[in-house]
Design goal:
The protein is 28% helix and 17% strand. It has 14 helices and 13 strands. Helix 8 packs parallel to helix 10 and helix 12 crosses helix 13. The structure holds iron/sulfur cluster. The site of iron/sulfur cluster has 10 residues, from loops.
Length: 399
Amino acid sequence: MYPQDRLDNWKRGQGHWADVEPEKWNDWVWQLQNRLRSLEDIERYMPLSPSEREGCRLAGSKLALAITPHFFNLIDADDPEDPIRRQVIPRAEEMEIAPEERDDPLGEEHDMVAPGLVHRYPDRVLFLVTDRCASYCRYCTRSRLVSNAKGYDFHAEFAAALAYIRAHQEVRDVLLSGGDPLLLSDRKLDYLLGELRKIEHVEFIRIGSRIPVFLPQRITPALCEILKKHGPIFLSIHVNHPRECTLELRAACERLSYAGLVIGNQSVLLRGVNDEPDIMKSLVHRLLMMRVRPYYIYQGDLVAGSAHLRADVARGLEIIRSLRGHTSGYAVPQYVIDAPGGGGKIPVNPEYVLAMNEDEVLLRNYEGRTFRYPRGGTPAETAADSYEASAEPCSCIGG
Ligand code: SF4
């Protein structure tokens, strides 16, 4: 059983940097300037394995190494397989490329209509606004361009991307991502969000960011004011392990919520990090305690050099089975596989519908018990399509 989710079990504080003045520690620019960026930086605080030492040496040609002091403090230096460590400290295995892996596993380059603007689905665009992050995740789907270690030389062109969105009335949903959009200066974010809000057909603005997790100090009152001004904004954060839920992250999520943002979480299922039901259950409970709705669990994309971190799909299904019916419905995220090459997100669910005939459907509940349920509707409505739409239990009666 994973430790209790009570707030007094959550981490907080300056850890290795206890001597630093709190004003500096709480300054996001100080955190960025004092990131651990090399083997030597890390070994000042903890010994590394031969594989990690090799990984750190090679990181500069694959995906840069950078870890904020805030996030580094979460690593248990005595545990060589620590789940936080596995996410941000490179290993030699990153240099092994499996045959099914790709630099661009989701085929984004194919749908890039302006530098940084991906238009794949008719009504929404992905707008990559920077190639920088506060810390770098070793399994990053966009490691081809993020941090520029591979010489991609990414430069978002805001004017071209905004012109494209203005000209395409079908675009009602814009997702800002990167890199990390919340690393942009307040001035740039204000401008970008303001320009998007001026476009009448853009109804929905989303931001994907791991900044609250890596750098909660960035969530300043001034930033919250900007986000509030341009709301409603939907924010997807990225927490993978319950230990990432610090009191500082909780406070940052509170500030964001009070500014009117709707916050969801997207976890990536990672081997040795969160591919255990107890760990994922603790994570989703802590997320709800931070006003964050667990939204997706992603199966790891087939990113070049990430096989050592990808979990078995069977573990993902086991996790969903362990959550559905066993905890609050709000705590259960959707497990998805982003289809290689750009096929989109495919929900992956344990089998709850066992069979269906013309009259009824045979269901299995969370305890493994089976139930029959009449299909209902008039004969004309009992086509498979209309059945699919009514198979989900009504959310107002429980869960
Ligand atoms: S924060 Fe997101 S974009 Fe940045 S390295 Fe991690 S996964 Fe990639």
